[in-house]
């Protein structure tokens, strides 16, 4: 497994997080520390470009322990935020939200919650999945998921769902979580 493979989902989410932050997301910069060697991606092409700097996570981010419990892991810390970067496209006016990254030694989870966004934006998110998506029933008004095996028993998994004008994305890399657990977490955040 290459480093690029293990970071694919977080990279896609970082691009979306940058897009959100550039359009009025609620993350606020704090003291910066470099996350050297962790590439980011643009919203239109999930290609690594620059290393992000960690920012304070929104106080609305779920605690690391609640995400751990939901996903069946025991190693996730509390969230950090994803900083704004130049984005190539924007969310609609009035859309706001949070981006929360939970990064442990091997596991990585990114949660995004965006409000005041048309449900049609689910297509923009699922078009950046690194594997084909499946429709999911019983999660919000509409939902899509993917599961990508990375080899060595490691997976990238994600779910994006909408309910009304709220969109929630949960991407999990190398966690013991099943898609059902990720779907339950998404449902709890909608």
Number of helices: 5
Order of helices and strands: HHHEEHEEEEH
The third-level CATH topology is Protein Transport Mog1p, Chain A
How many separate domains make up the residues? 1
List the strand order in the largest sheet.
1-2-6-5-4-3
Structural class: alpha+beta
What low-confidence regions span 5 or more consecutive residues with pLDDT below 50? 1-52
Number of E-type strands: 6
**Strand percentage:** 15-25%
CATH C-level class:
Alpha Beta
The shape, in one word, is: globular
* CATH arch. level architecture: 3-Layer(aba) Sandwich
Largest sheet: 6 strands, antiparallel
Helix proportion range: 10-25%
CA gyration radius, whole angstroms:
15 Å
Arithmetic mean of pLDDT = 74
N- to C-terminal separation?
Answer: 33 Å
Structural features, described:
A 6-stranded antiparallel β-sheet has the order 1-2-6-5-4-3, sandwiched between helices. The longest helix has 15 residues. 48% of the residues are buried. It has a single domain, classed as Protein Transport Mog1p, Chain A (3-Layer(aba) Sandwich). The protein is built from 5 helices and 6 strands, in the order H-H-H-E-E-H-E-E-E-E-H. By secondary structure, the chain is an alpha+beta fold.
